[in-house]
Fold this sequence. Notes:
Elements: H1 3-98, H2 109-121, E1 135-148, E2 154-157, E3 167-171, E4 174-181, H3 184-189, E5 197-206, E6 211-213, E7 216-223, E8 226-233, E9 238-244, E10 262-267, E11 270-275, E12 283-289, E13 296-305, E14 309-315, E15 318-324, E16 331-338, E17 351-353, E18 360-366, E19 371-376, E20 379-389
Antiparallel strand pairs: 1-20, 2-3, 3-4, 4-5, 6-7, 7-8, 8-9, 10-11, 11-12, 12-13, 14-15, 15-16, 16-17, 18-19, 19-20
Amino acid sequence: MGPWRCLLLLPLLAPALRSQQQQFMEYVERRLTLLEERISQWHDQSSRYSTELRDFKNQVLGMLEAAEKEREAMRAEAESAAVRVDRLEREVDYLETQNPAPPCVEVDETLMDKQVATAKQRKNEKYTKLTDCSDTIASVRAMKILKRFGSASGLWTKDAAGSSEKIYVFDGTANDTVYVFPRMREFTLFSATRKAARIKLPYPWVGTGHLVYDGHLYYIRQQGLSFQVIKFNLANKTVVDSSVFPAEEQIPVFGLSPSTYIEVSADEEGLWAIYATKEDEKNMCLAKLDPASLDIEQMWDTPCPRENAEGAFVVCGALHVVYNTRLPSRARVQCVFDVSGTLAPEDASLVYFPKRYGSHSSLKYSPRERQIYAWDDGYQIIYRMEMKKKLEV
């Protein structure tokens, strides 16, 4: 097509081109308008969301401030309540000290005459002490709760005579496996028994009256209606000796620990056995044991009742029996029987134990450390004792 023909067609095509250009511009304007509307809508929504978020943040900050004030108020109330409870416990201790509970021994004139006659008859049978120990417990100086391990009843202790730092744990009232921890640290830090050595005994034990003394374990075995004291060597894991306890028709020695028939205890004088029989089912009996042969060296009928007793131990030849008090969370030494006659029962200190979780299933006195290893509803507790001379009580 020649140039002159293009020039002829331009006037005809110009209106069509202008129309298309106008439509394109209108389309672009509509799209821009729609985009502007969307941008404006997004801006409005963003502003609304920002406002709502700011309001929510302020609301949360206000709630947090209110919660912090409430927490501080509750903490202050808890501290105030703890102070009041501690003051109340001190006042209760003071009141109970000023008004001691009446003795649990029933007053019977015939029985009293019989006891007086027996006491006169046995004056020459008083115990001849082996040491110069003349101390008695004045008070519980401190209480330390180490952990919670095992079942509600059991016992834990160190060697009462040796220098070993090993911890021996008897879980339950009927078992045959003793856990041994190398030191107090391992027993305290680890909740599981994987760090403990295990000693499997040839016979299962019964009760919580067992003892570790001078490298040997003295534990109680029940065989029918009789009870044996088993002497077990901890070094070579063998039974050294055993002896049937020479008491007929034995009954649980503590009213609150029905599984314990014999409590083997150690003090500065050696080994003792605390037990009870049907012959005098109201009170406890005490026997001096020969640790080498398990022979009974001497026996006493004590005035200490079994009723409401939860444990006992011997200190410097004096039996100390722990009973429940009127308050369900407290216990105290209410009966003391000194085999040498040096300490009269009425002259003994009134010893209170701090509040506890349940009932003591075992109380093991360590003459070397002058403290008690207690098992209280699965909690292992150490009571540090304050001592006095018997003549100063």
